[in-house]
Amino acid sequence: EVWEAYDEVLDRTVAVKVIGVSIAGEKEFRDRFLREARLAAKLEHKNILPIYDFGMQEDTAYLVMPLLPGGTLKERLQQPLTPEDVIDILASIGAALDHAHESGILHRDVKPSNVLVDKAGHLLLADFGLAKATEGTSGLTMTGAILGTPLYMPPEQAAGLPVDSRADQYSLGVIAYQVLTGSLPFMAESPLSILNKHLTMAPPFPSLVRPELPERVDGVIQRVLAKSPDDRYPTCTDFVTDL
Length: 243
Fold this sequence. Notes:
Helix content: 40-55%
Strand order of the largest sheet: 1-2-4-3
Mean pLDDT: 88
Strand content: 5-15%
Radius of gyration: 18 Å
Oligomer: single chain
């Protein structure tokens, strides 16, 4: 849950993200949460939402962050986007991811609702390390849910295999597909069916969904959404540059 709160010491309004007791009550989670929060708090980048504070209050884990009034990228995607908008969105998220990857931190749950918008319209990626902190040894969250969001999940993560920076790049590629075409590459009635499509199916060419897109875009999207991480780009910025 995310709450608007007032910081009495520094006289400012902030956002406080509270992690559910069902997860935070586990000792393994507490250890992971504090470790990941310390790592994420060290990230300093214009497109990464800073962490003001974090900790445990009895069995409740919490993060304190800036309160941004602009909503999320998910809401912004309801409006028409120009090609310049598309590249600006992807470049901002890609730069944030590359900075984190260079610091040895994976996001593992890149999706539009985790990208926040400030007053000036700039994008800030949030929740670094939180997905990792909630992961058990089985690759599931402490509540038994699948880690991450199936709509944006890379095949290796869906299969429970080890992941690296190229997993976040795949999720960025799904966002790219969405902002380019107005639709997601894979849809189904159940989360497991969506995961199976990520594992086994190639996405439709973007130019088939939006005929005005250049066919060269198809090859770029094919590469960033490759099933094998080895077939993707070296970095997220390399992908955005190619696009």
